[in-house]
Amino acid sequence: MDFVVDNSWIVPYSPLISKTFKTHCNVEYCNSVKSIKYICKYVTKGSDMAVFGLQSSNTNHEISRYQVGRYVNCNEAIWRIFAFPIHERHPTVVHLAVHLENGQRVYFTASNAMLRAGTPPATTLTSFFAICQSDPFARTLLYSEMPRYYTWNASSKNFQRRKEGDAVPGYPDVRSTDALGRMYTVHPKNDECFYLRLLLVNVREPTSFETLRTVNGVIFPTYRAACEELNLLENDKHWDTTIAEAIISASPSQIRTLFAIIISTCFPSNPCNLWHKYKDNMSEDILHQIRITSRNHDVEINEEIHYCALLLIEDMCYLMYGSLLIRLGMPAPNREMNDAFNRELEREREYDHQELDLVVQKNVPLLNSQQKEVYDTLMKAIDDGNGGLYFLDAPGGTGKTFLMSVVLATVRARSNIAVAFASSGIAATLLEGCRTAHSALKLPLNLQTIEEPTCNITKNSAMAKVSSGTNAQWRINVYKLEALNRTLKYLRNDSRCFGGAMILLSGDFRQTVLPNCQ
Asked: Measured between alpha carbons, how far is 302 from 299 in angstroms, rounded to an integer?
């Protein structure tokens, strides 16, 4: 086989240097930042060598292995011997606390809890108020500008004037540096603290939390009101337009839901103005229901109807986001704190027991022998409190829905909780009080891709109260069933199947099994 030998076969070299030193030698021109490897490696490179040793296979001394493996080249060794700085931070950044009055963090033990609660430690914010009372120069600064002229003494918990830096014109005893002050961020959902931070960014010379809320000699009850007076909040024109457009085609219930979402997540500047402008539109369905119930079409909208709409809005805000209207800058309905929380529980208990008793007395005799056997078995399981998982399998049109309706009516007539769920909205219309599982239990949408799915229900949620005493009837698939099983075990603190609750599944296997086609 013939080979063509050309310059690609030859290692680059310098003919002159190779002839002079009688060896293969090459010269490279290092013209990039990568040339540091030549300085640190080739210049100080010693002879090639290998180090090995024999030891027991069970020896594993981690410290020795680290010391042997630690390599310090000559440059790093010299740098450390002469104690040159390894790193540098510039400029200095000082974190500034943001908290409400008496809202600072306190560390305590069982022995000093009362003392620490009575005399909480000073923070950068309270020290800022204190120094503004005695230092004329500090009163000219914003809170975030303090670290530029003052140092924070962590041991004595106070600000002290800097002794080094550039002189400040007009203040011979004040020195300035390029230090930065960084206030901790606050989420708008923590509303009062958020508006307090907004005031600290814009207001000079505050001497206390009260003076921070004072505008033109008027002490405002909230920091939000002070921000509104100072025009620090943007207008709500875009939210006004959003609700106005929704009124054209949306129902009053949908408008209330939209309004609840806006005030809970979008934090408008003045939600009260939006409420007073559109409260009649949000209350039209309530007025219609009152006219039908009272059979009096002359009833006009009034404050009581607005009050009912306000209650419904607060229920939605609390159940969706855990916020009451008073925390969102809205007038709060006068009721107990946990009334909105118990709304979900009341929904399952507001059935007319006398009417349900009549339904049970009328329909139980209509059950055939097989239906009656199933009915008695389920009632015995509920009475014994043993729970269990049951599956009602029967062809379509044989009375499964009728039987489940009787079971639901019997349980609810006894003032117990029976919840019915279905996979689709169409199926949910077949049973009284039935809802879709995704809506009621907050099931994840990607059930089939999650290894161990659970319902998005916490122990402190409204649905958890309902689930703690639930007897459920389901028309649902296996993934949702597994999610419910894990959730009920967690909510009821019971390791039994479905946490000891009685679960009745209903369906027709004949409609789910595919035929064997040849």
From this structure: 9
Residue type, 165: G
**Total Cβ atoms within 10 A of residue 471:** 21
Give residue 385's region: left, alpha or beta (phi > 0; psi -120 to 50).
left
Residue-wise pLDDT tens digits, 480-499 = 777 778 887 877 777 788 77
CB 488 within 8 A of CB 498: yes
Segment 361-406, tens digit of pLDDT? 888 888 888 888 888 888 888 888 777 788 888 887 788 888 888 8
Q: Please tell me the chain's helix, strand, coil percentages from 3-state DSSP, rounded to the nearest 5.
A: 50, 10, 40
Give the DSSP letter of residue 337: T
In angstroms, the Cα distances linking 146 to 104, 124, 203, 209, 382 are 19, 10, 13, 17, 68
Q: How many Å apart are CA 47 and CA 190, to the nearest integer?
A: 67
Average of per-residue pLDDT across 451-473: 61
* Residues whose CB is less than 8 angstroms from the CB of residue 291 and which lie 6 or more positions away in sequence, other chains included: 297, 299
Strands 93-96 and 180-183: parallel
Write a three-state SS string for 348-388.
CCCCCHHHHHHHHHHHHHHCCHHHHHHHHHHHHHHHHCCCE
* Distance (Å, whole) CA 459 – CA 392: 30
**Would you state the structure tokens that stand for residue 29, as one six-digit string?**
């021109």
DSSP summary character for residue 307: H
Instruction: Take residue 493 and report the two structure tokens written for it.
Output: 């603190």
Q: Which residues contact 426 (CB under 8 A, 6 or more apart)?
A: none
| DSSP character at residue 6 | -
In angstroms, rounded to a whole number, what is the distance separating the alpha carbons of residues 233 and 223?
12
State the DSSP H helix or E strand holding residue 314, giving kind and residue range, or none if neither. Answer: helix 303-321
Interacting residues of 462 by C-beta distance below 8 A, sequence separation 6+: 319, 341, 342, 343, 344, 345
Q: 3-class DSSP state for residue 317? A: helix
Q: What tokens were used for 93?
A: 């950044």
Radius of gyration, CA atoms only, the chain: 37
